[in-house]
Amino acid sequence: MKIAIVGADGTNKAWTPERIEKAKLVIRAIFHGAKFFDRLPKNDFEHYLYGFIQENIEVDRNIILISSHCPEGGVDIWAEEMADKFGIQKEIYPAEVNQWEDKKVLLFGGGIIKHKGYRSRNIQIAETCDVLYDIEPKGSCEHCDGRGFTSKHPNFLLYGRRCRFCHGTGAYSGGTWTLNYAKKLGKGVHQVIIE
C-alpha cells in the first residue's frame, strides 16, 4: 500500500514543539496500523494514540511511504525519518524548483526543459498514492492567518467570510491542496488537525 504523508512545512508559524511531537505520534500510528487509523476516536485522541502504540503492534511492512522531501522540513521529513527508523520503503518526489508552477527553460536551438514545481510534484504524489494523510497544525492557513475567516475586523465571525482555502478550519497548506486533488481522483484521504 502506497501511503502519502503530507502537511505544513517546518517554517509554518503554527508548529510548536508540542504540536510537532503530536504530529510525529500520528505518523507513528499510521505506520503501525494504517488500516485501523479510521477507527481512532476523535475525543481523547492523544490518549488513544499512546495506548495504540504501547500495544507493540508491528509496523505494517506492506507500506511504501510517498513523500516530497521538502527542503524546509516538516511533516514529510518527519515521516521520512520515521520510515528510516522502522525500515519502511520510500518513494520521494521532490520539486526541482522552489516555486508553485513548473519552470520552463528555453535551450539554444529551440528545445525546452521543464523543471517540476510544487504543483506538479503534488499532483504526482496524489496520483501515485493509494491513501493520503494531511497533517496540519491548527492555525496553519496563511491566507486567513489561521482564523478561518478573511476579515480582520474584531468581530470577524459576524463581518467576515469563511476562508476559501481552509473553509473555516484555519488549517491549510500545500498538503491540503494535495489532499483535495487526491480526493478528486477517488483516493482515500484523511486530514488530521493537530491542536
Task: Give a short summary of the structure.
Helices cover 33% and strands 18% of the residues.
> In CATH terms, what is the fold-level topology?
Rossmann fold
Name of the CATH class: Alpha Beta
The spatial strand order of the largest sheet comes to 3-2-1-6-7
**Net shape:** globular
Number of strands: 7
The proportion of strand residues reads 15-25%
Largest sheet descriptor: 5 strands, parallel
- Rounded to the nearest angstrom, the distance between the terminal CA atoms is 28 Å
- Secondary structure class reads alpha/beta
Specify the number of helices. Answer: 6
Kindly report the average pLDDT value.
Answer: 83
Protein described:
The protein is an alpha/beta fold and 195 residues long. The chain has one domain: Rossmann fold (3-Layer(aba) Sandwich), CATH 3.40.50. The chain is built from six helices and seven strands, in the order E-H-H-E-H-E-E-E-H-E-H-H-E. The chain has helices spanning 17-33, 45-54, 75-86, 118-128, 156-159, 174-184, and strands at 2-7, 64-67, 89-92, 103-106, 112-115, 131-137, 188-194. A five-stranded parallel β-sheet has the order 3-2-1-6-7, sandwiched between helices. A two-stranded antiparallel sheet has the order 4-5. Helix 3 (75-86) links the parallel strand 2 and strand 3. Helix 1 packs across helix 2 and helix 4 crosses helix 6. The longest helix is centred in the N-terminal third of the chain and has 17 residues, at 17-33. It is globular, with a radius of gyration of 18 Å.
Provide keyphrases for this structure.
195 residues, alpha/beta, Rossmann fold, 5-stranded parallel β-sheet, two-stranded antiparallel sheet, 6 helices, 18% strand
